[in-house]
Design goal:
Length: 801
């Protein structure tokens, strides 16, 4: 017994500098409680049992010598012996009773917690190692956590189990990989008042995008119940993205929301049962609702930004954070219950990047949330129980239901990982990023659809959704040097439709987005004809009406579904490139394309030649689509004003006459988009010969022109570009087409208007790009795969000029 030794530190006595005394987790909780609670960040009160107490426990039990002997011969290759030694180490620690004076101090501190929160209060008991939550190594999930602990007997047992968990198999393995001496790492225990998230929701927060490292967003993942299911990947959670720069200016930039399945939730055990927590099913109605409101999302994001700023100031450099949050179902309050530095994306440099390109096709076996942006191929190995991992061979594709830290020894040797359950912040996703291997999580029934021994290709290079293909497909890896490339005087922009690729592609050298296609978002995310949402009663097909009811569930009305989905798609792209301009083309479906949307047949006429029919500007003021166009305007207005993304420039397509341009601008103004107000510019597509002939008149209406070389070629040469019979004549390099383009550039310059091009020609033909530079065009917008090649060509041409 050590008279006078103090083994308890309350959170308000701890700072981030106390890692050697209370471990990374507790030091960070103390920092949060002391420094950020006064700024409005709620943190439950609690105390730390110091690392000195752990050393005192080992000394009192006289077990250190035997522990050293067990560790001395440990070998990760021999999994059975490795597990046996780990079990013995835990057994040695757990069998030592807590010394009397240490137990008394823990009891006294728990009684103080009960005085603050109520008799026999519920606490979380969490391990906190002294080599944990470091900027370069998280040690996340290596030791144990115990929830809903009540009374001194349960508390003492949980503390001993936490001390013993310093030697879980996964913790031993992690320390070996990280080069840490086992006996220079000690364990502190945190005891914190539970937040009643079993009656509400909880989850994790990252102050960057976990896939791309994009630092201007806060990513919040959440599900119903206690947070263990989210952390361990037992559920597919909701994901929410908030844009930091305009959050700081007082806007409401919830730029993206993704509904997760949330099929189960962890709640408190009942009665006097020793089962302290249990999982129950979530009702179908609750699954279809988000677990947080927009107000709650924004509150958590503000807390995350505040915490990141504090830790960055402490570190002397930008410090992205990995946080845990919980909502109290009794009070409705939101709490931060853990904070640590993010340790994967924040350690990467931006000098270069790898871009993976899949170059083959095959049947898709399963799809899920992609992790990593890479591609891997190999033989699948399905493992349904962690005890069977000894048969796994290095380089195989691990296919399983979900992973926990116990799986890490085998995850380190996998070529790729596929799980049935989990979201982008689950255990499998975090470890995959740390290891640099592609992973697909939340694939549903992967363990049933993929058989051991089957050769597969795991592709995470196509955005948010990843696919497992049957067979070994060819792919290539492009190495891109980011810092060496000079910027040309001519703006080189990007054509982009898929919001899921925006964060990743924004890392390429660029001057913004010259064409964001609204119809991509409508087709892939909304899927319902806008007029079918305004007038669902006119949709005759019963199956389509049921589908409309299903997708709009949880929204205030059906129109809000369209506005919300479209605005989030636009906002994701705008945020990725902010403050660079992002030109968003208003919808340019043809009637046959609109008719394919859910409910579309009830509102679209049949045309012989939709390519030059009821499309573009002509629809916007027509009674057959005016109400649908109003929804498009509302979405753009929401992005610019509510979210603060004023870099969005709407663009009108296929505007046939000057009078039509006037009517469209009047319609936009009627819906809150007044050209010139709040810096709003409006561009027009220049793709009809009349736009070129009357460019001086069109310049009085619009702030810029974007040449649509595909349609301009079609209408100049009299070719239906959908017709295969005359496709061989179609060529943007025809002298007549090029002369018209020269006139556009000259006319825009004469009227001090922006001139750009967003057609395919400069992406396909470097000599066409060179022609545009010679003519003095302001910007060229390209497909992402041709961006670097054409940028080099533009630089070369500018040097010649």
């Amino acid at each position: 017994m050590r008279e006078g030794a103090r083994y308890i530190r309350w959170f308000d006595e701890i700072t981030i500098k106390d890692v050697p005394l209370v471990g990374g987790k507790n030091a960070s909780l103390g920092e949060l409680y002391r420094e950020l609670a006064p700024k409005g960040v709620r943190v439950p009160n609690g105390f730390a049992i110091t690392a000195d107490a752990y050393r005192y426990l080992l000394k009192s039990g006289a077990i250190l010598q035997e522990m050293e002997q067990v560790v001395a011969g440990i070998d990760k290759i021999d999994l059975e012996d490795f597990a046996r030694r780990g079990h013995r180490l835990r057994e040695l620690i757990y069998q030592v009773p807590l010394p009397h004076d240490l137990a008394e101090q823990i009891t006294s501190a728990y009684h103080a917690i009960c005085q603050q929160y109520g008799e026999n209060t519920d606490v979380a008991v969490r391990s906190s190692a002294t080599a944990e939550d470091l900027p370069t190594a998280s040690f996340a999930g290596q030791q144990e956590t115990y929830l809903n602990i009540r009374g001194t007997a349960q508390l003492m047992d949980a503390c001993r189990r936490c001390f013993a968990s310093l030697y879980t198999d996964r913790a031993i393995s992690y320390r070996i990989d990280q080069g840490f001496d086992h006996f220079k790492v000690a364990l502190s225990v945190g005891v914190m008042k539970m937040v009643r998230s079993d009656m509400a929701a909880s989850g994790v927060i990252f102050t960057l995008d976990t896939e791309t490292g994009f630092r201007e967003v806060v990513l919040i993942s959440g599900a119903y119940g206690l947070g263990e299911n989210v952390v361990q990947g037992a559920v597919n959670p909701d994901d929410f993205y908030v844009f930091k720069p305009t959050l700081r200016t007082g806007h409401r930039p919830v730029i993206r929301k993704k509904l997760g399945e949330k099929s189960i939730k962890m709640i408190y055990g009942t009665g006097t049962s020793k089962v302290l927590t249990r999982n129950v099913e979530v009702s179908e109605a609750e699954r279809r609702l988000f677990c947080l409101s927009d107000d709650e999302i924004l509150e958590l994001a503000r807390h995350a930004v505040e915490i990141e700023a504090h830790y960055s100031q402490r570190a002397g450099q930008e410090q992205p954070m990995d946080l845990e949050w919980a909502k109290d179902g009794i009070t409705g309050e939101l709490f931060i219950v853990q904070a640590r530095p993010e340790t994967v994306q924040s350690q990467k440099t931006l000098d270069s990047m790898e871009i993976y390109h899949l170059e083959g096709e095959g049947p898709v076996l399963v799809s899920g949330t992609s992790v990593g942006e890479k591609i891997a191929a190999g033989q699948a190995h399905v493992i349904k129980d962690v005890h069977l991992i000894a048969d796994f061979k290095p380089g195989e594709v691990l296919v399983t239901d979900t992973t926990t830290p116990d799986w890490e020894p085998v995850m380190k040797t996998a070529g790729a990982i596929v799980t049935n359950r989990g979201g982008r912040t689950c255990h499998a996703a975090i470890v995959s990023r740390e290891l640099g291997i592609p992973s697909i999580v939340g694939a549903g029934d992967a363990t049933e659809r993929i058989a051991t021994g089957r050769k597969v290709t795991v592709c995470c290079a196509g955005g948010e959704m990843g696919q497992v293909y049957d067979g070994i497909l060819p792919f290539r890896v492009e190495q891109v040097a980011l810092r060496e490339l000079q910027r040309p005087r001519t703006k080189v922009m990007m054509n982009l439709g898929n919001p899921e690729e925006a964060f990743s592609l924004s890392k390429l050298p660029n001057d913004g987005v010259g064409l964001a296609r609204m119809e991509f978002i409508i087709n892939n995310y909304i899927k319902v004809h806008p007029m079918a949402l305004v007038h669902p009663e006119q949709v005759a097909d019963e199956a389509e009406r049921r589908e409309i009811e299903r997708v709009t569930f949880g929204y205030p009305d059906k129109e809000s579904y369209f506005v919300t989905q479209l605005s989030e798609g636009i906002a994701t792209i705008a945020a990725a490139f902010y403050p660079k301009p992002v030109v968003v083309r208003l919808s340019d479906f043809k009637t046959n394309e609109y008719a394919k949307l859910i409910g579309g047949r009830a509102f679209e006429p049949q045309e012989e030649n939709p390519m030059i029919g009821f499309r573009g500007a002509s629809r916007y003021y027509d009674e057959r689509y005016r109400e649908g166009f109003a929804l498009e305007c509302r979405a753009v207005k929401r992005v610019r004003e509510e979210m603060g993304l004023d870099n969005v420039i709407p663009m009108v397509p296929f505007c046939r006459t000057v009078g039509e341009g006037e009517r469209v601008l009047a319609e936009m103004a009627r819906n809150g988009l007044n050209r010139g107000e709040s810096g709003l510019e409006v561009y027009v597509m220049c793709e009809i010969p009349n736009n070129v002939i009357l460019i001086d008149e069109f310049s009085k209406l619009f702030d810029g022109f974007s040449i649509g070389s595909n349609d301009l070629t079609q209408l100049t040469l009299g070719i239906d570009r959908d017709s295969a019979l005359v496709a061989h004549i179609f060529d943007e390099r025809d002298p007549g087409v090029m002369r018209l383009i020269s006139q556009v550039i000259d006319g825009a310059r004469r009227n001090t208007r922006h001139s750009g091009i967003c057609g395919q020609a400069p992406s396909d033909y470097p000599e066409f790009a060179a022609f545009l530079v010679r003519e003095g065009i302001d910007s060229i917008s390209l497909t992402p795969d041709s961006l670097l090649k054409i940028t080099l060509r533009v630089l070369e041409m500018e040097k010649q000029l």
